[in-house]
Design goal:
The structure is a homodimer. By secondary structure, the first copy, chain A, is mostly helical. In chain A, helix 8 crosses helix 9. The longest helix of chain A is centred in the N-terminal third of the chain and has 28 residues. In chain A, about 40% of the residues are buried. Chains A and B meet through helix 7, helix 8, helix 9 and helix 10 of A and helix 7, helix 8, helix 9 and helix 10 of B. Chains A, B: Keywords: DNA-binding. Chains A, B: Pfam families: TetR_C_16 (PF17920), TetR_N (PF00440).
Chain lengths: ~190, ~190
């Protein structure tokens, strides 16, 4: 009997319910923002009782924080060889297939940024999952400024690609842009 | 009698109706995307009869194109002295107060990018209002690649700022970031 089959039905159902709630949360928060999305509508999207959301996730704030983490699934940007960082990230941003789900995460963040409560959760999440590790990896001097510069580049090319990928560049131009983005990342880090 | 008072009531009403429809369109398209937004709901937001939308704007495509233009109001980026471009744009992105309405334009574009009809209108609008003038201004060689690099930087720092402006940088760091963004723009253009 495999490990998967050995999982009790109760846990399997719990995992499925949790996943359904998180999926519904990403959808509602990205469409209506933190303040606009109601737990009742979200529960209806997920096909569960609203009380279950509280049992699984606690408050609306906690659910939003969890949905942010769940919906982002960032690639392991700061894990590889630091020297290869500019080429590796440029390749990811310009040449590799677009990652799934990125756009929904961005919409959720943009749509909710005007909410005071959500903004604090977004900042904490950004610090923990992105700026913190990046600043540590970059080190002194001026880690905060250089991290912000790297973040702006990653954000910008991810968004530009989401908006009109493939609409403008020939194959040769895509390779040129990839080299240019690597230059930009070197300038940002340096 | 001033020029404003001399405007016939009919034109004043027409202008107000047009503006109300465009405002409602920016709101609906940015929340629900091109495919999701119905002209009926949009008319209800604007407090007008749905037939008026067709009379004023033609089709849904035409309204979307007009809303994109109306909701963007980009600053005159490529009008000044080319030499001062990196410093001028960095200042705008990092130091000057955030422009109003930018976020709604971005949400409208991101939310609608998955729609085939909307994507074509977005690309045409980007070409006409942004990439076209920018490529002409940059000139040969590789104008398309360099324009794309400039666009990625502008987009990225605008979005990063919309998400967590002021959350991370001290005053001195903001000036440092401004110089860094100017360096990035020079790298993008060069």
């Amino acid at each position: 009997m495999s490990c998967v089959e050995a999982t009790p039905a109760r846990s399997r159902n719990a995992a499925a319910t949790r996943a359904a709630i998180l999926k519904a949360a990403c959808g509602r928060f990205s469409r209506e923002g933190y303040d606009g999305a109601s737990l009742r509508d979200l529960a209806s999207d997920a096909g569960v009782d609203p009380a279950l959301i509280c049992r699984y996730f606690g408050s609306k704030e906690d659910l939003f924080a969890e949905a942010l983490k769940n919906c982002a699934s960032p690639p392991d940007l700061f894990g590889g060889d630091p020297k290869s960082f500019p080429e590796r990230v440029a390749q990811m941003l310009v040449v590799e297939p677009k990652p799934e789900g990125k756009l929904e995460h961005l919409l959720m963040v943009l749509r909710s940024a005007a909410s005071t409560k959500a903004a604090e959760i977004i900042r904490r999440n950004n610090r923990e999952t992105f700026y913190g590790p990046l600043e540590e990896w970059l080190g002194a001097p001026d880690a905060a400024v250089r991290a912000r510069a790297v973040a702006g580049i990653i954000m910008g090319f991810a968004v530009a690609r989401a908006i009109d990928d493939d609409a403008m560049l020939q194959d040769g131009e895509r390779q040129q842009l990839c080299r240019k983005v690597a230059d930009l990342l070197r300038t940002a880090i340096g």
